[in-house]
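Quick log. Single chain, no ligands specified.
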Amino acid sequence: SSGINAEWPLRPGDYAIARRIVDLHTRQQESVEREYTMEEIRRYIAFAKKFKPRITKESQEFMVEEYKKLRQRDANAMSKASWRITVRQLESLIRLSEAMAKMVCEDEVLVGHVKEAFRLLSKSIIRVETPDINLEDEPEVPEQTDDAMDGEEGEQLRITFEDYRKISNMLIQRMRDFEDQEKNKDSEEGALKKKELVDWYISQVEEEIEGEQEMIARMNVTEKVIERLVKVDNVLLEIGGGEKGESPYLVVHPNYIVD
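-> predicted structure:
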């Protein structure tokens, strides 16, 4: 086994093979001097197909780590364009890695093969634009009346995806920090009330707030973000708050990873 390094350098003849394939597609069959005949290429492909490379343990672990990175990037994307990663991408990574090993007639799928397959896969993943977040569960369409002085009642509360992720991550990180602090104290609480979390967030951004109206608006947005994290994203869990109307306790889903 000749192996392959992480940078996947071109081996002698790679350029000639690539050029031949391009020429066939562009019908420029006489444009370059050919290093291999068609019969030689057919024999090479037939020979390479006979290899059944085994994925080494090191390569398996590398695949898992790279797939986890893609999944975390997808779940916690801070940008408006996020990737949609499923198990199909993992299957594609496995098949591409095996193809890389076959191409160089290797008996094992090495980390270098996986790295090149991952690079190709990353280039092919379609980025999906994420729209602004509507924080209203079921926005109602108000009836037009003569008393309506402006359109505020019909407006939906929206924030950008970036702002939503920023606020969400701040809230979740605060809850995780609080949980860790309570564990160190051997406390039985381990959870913040919704109102406490809202008050904490406002205290973090109070220097940006100008006036009482903006304060109220920020609190409203924060409450709506928390509601969405509970009801839509299932990132936060409500564990009750006692009597009706009392602020519920919140905990972070144990499987959620903060970006």
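The longest strand covers residues 249-252.
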